[in-house]
Amino acid sequence: MTDSGDHSSHGGGDSDVEAAFVPPADRAPHPAVGDDPSPPSEPEDADSDGPEPASRRYGLDATFCRRARVLLGVMFPSCGAYTVFLLMALMVACGAEQYVVYWVGIIPSRYYQVLGDKDLDAFGVLTSECLGLVLVISFVKGTRIFLSTVLYVNWRQLIDRALHRRYFAGINYYLLNVLDQRIDNPDQRITQDVDKMCKTLSTMIAQLLVAPFIIGYYTYAVYSNTGYIGVLSIYGFFVVATVVNKVMMTPIVTYVVRQEEKEGTFRFKHMQIRVHAEALGFHGCSVVEEHRCNRRLGALVATQLALFNRRFMLTLVVNLFDYLGSILNYLVIAIPIFAGMYDDKTPQQLSAIISQNSFVCMYLIYNFTQLVDLSSSATEVVGVTHRIGQLMERLDTLQRRRESRTPSPEPAGGDGKPPPPPGKEGEREGEKRGEKVAKKEEVMKGGAEKKAEDGDERRVSDADPTSARFDTPYRLHSVTVRAPGGRQALVADLSLTVRRGRSLLVTGSSSSGKTSLLRVLRGLWLPAAGSVRRTVLPGPRHVFFMPQRPFFTDGSLRQQIVYPERLKEDGYSAAETEQMLHYLQLTQLTGLAERCGGLDADVARNWYDLLSPGEMQRLCFVRLFHHRPSFVFMDEATSAVSPDMEEILYQECLRLQMTLFSVGHRESLTSYHDWKLHLLGGGRWSLEPIAPPAYRAAQE
């Protein structure tokens, strides 16, 4: 074996060390089935699309109709869906309410008649009927409100679950929150925006659906009492009101979208302070953070004031038409009276007729003005519909892009020879390093692996770990790594195979690309050039990743240990619990179990506030030991623990026969690895074997 200086590489190539680390059969230049080839331009997730322009306008346009149609398909998944039943029941309740309202509305005209005739018996009967109608309309109205609330909750559940399916498909949540710039505050869109849309729409939709029938009936009633002049007057009034409100609504929708964006930014800033309260306390930067919070608050208030200024004019117009409607009512009633249609009636009869006709005309005008009044609520619905539709469209786009990059199941050409890797570097490697027999074997072998990889994720990750496929879960061929949007290569033309029993330590200066290499291995980024073959999907029992910043979900201490798996519904045996407690003792976290009230006590506090950085890393190792994967990829996993604890943790990993792929700076880590990949910066790297320490040499 040559010295480390001979193993450096600027463009990769075939060093002797690489030949030792990657067996000859693995060195054939092939974009084998199961690889993630990538064009040499940018990593997959570096989206060339920029952020949504702040000047973009939203409104009741074709884009809104398209997005609303998609959301309606989610809210009503089939004709027999529960939400369809709820909507039908809500419409029946609204129809029943309108029927009772009609009889309540003509009661004044009957009272005029009874009181004018001084009929005491009829007065008592009419009063009893009124009390009965009050009870009926109270029940019907309460039923309508209840059905509307249940419909709102079911809509929210359907839309949020549809968004969750897209959000958690693959790594879309990572792309959207870390690399994508087009969608602001996806968490706010999934929570607050969906809630606001469903709640507002549930109060509007029944009224919108029942309104045509009510308007049709009362139009006939008005025509019977006043003729076509009364109907034309009311309809003309409504057309003018609708046009004016449409003109006033259009600019407001854009400001509703902007207000939600600023609201999300302001909320995120306070969430950031809550999560990092201890670090901010150490820095003593309350003045700076107060200034930054106030700046975001100022931007939010400025947007809200701009929205309210425009909404003021809309409210003014709405109220204007509301009161004009009441005047129009008497103008319509006056037509038949001054035309002499009721000259033969007594004063008592005329009062009753005026009261009844007034109710009919007023109620028709009222229904029209109710539709006009909905314009204010409609602006909210249209605005948040755009935001939710944007999110859904973006998630679908990210998923399609990822699926479109899945390699073809037939990589070979007509002569059976696989094409070279993309880019000039791949072509040079193909000229230097290929043999036909090896290529054909690798293509056939890769096809079998691809079939397994394309299957059900749970079935693949739970497959037999003794299978030969699990011996080499990752193979990198001429891989170049760049940061999203960056041009300088962090790692250039790297080829290696991760093998069972051959642990690898990755070292290098800060920003040399160590974590970026792990992102490529995990599939968070695609390589800028070259290919990565994954024969096994990541799973806690086989391939386990420990990122630099540990993640802890909500729930009990046991939930943190078994994560990312869910707790067993039938509970854990005494032996399993004893093993968890043993690992807590091994990592000196016995006191943590006592502070939490045991393994299964629900912890209401934020785990990041409860644990120190060292405790977080040790608890992650408890999680690792519980799952016992074959391969573990660790990014600075022991940077916050003492060297003595680091030795305990790594010794246990070796005892459990895990193959390690570690990123770290401490020289002591070399004792637990077989090879060292040192990133030199500028894309250069070196790969060399590590002489085993005395105790490992004795074990071997």
TrEMBL record:
The chain crosses the membrane at residues 70-93, 131-155, 201-220, 226-244, 320-342. Residues 1-54, 395-471 are annotated as: Disordered. PROSITE patterns: ABC_TRANSPORTER_1, ABC_TRANSPORTER_2. Residues 474-699 form the ABC transporter domain. SUPFAM superfamilies: ABC transporter transmembrane region, P-loop containing nucleoside triphosphate hydrolases. One of its GO terms (molecular function) is ABC-type transporter activity. InterPro entries: ABC1_TM_dom, ABC1_TM_sf, ABC_transporter-like_ATP-bd, ABC_transporter-like_CS, ABC_transporter_sub-D, P-loop_NTPase. Keywords: ATP-binding, Membrane, Nucleotide-binding, Transmembrane, Transmembrane helix, Transport. Gene3D superfamilies: ABC transporter type 1, transmembrane domain (1.20.1560.10), P-loop containing nucleotide triphosphate hydrolases (3.40.50.300). GO terms for cellular component: peroxisomal membrane. It holds the Pfam family ABC_tran. This is ATP-binding cassette sub-family D member 4. It comes from Amphibalanus amphitrite. The lineage of its organism: Eukaryota, Metazoa, Ecdysozoa, Arthropoda, Crustacea.
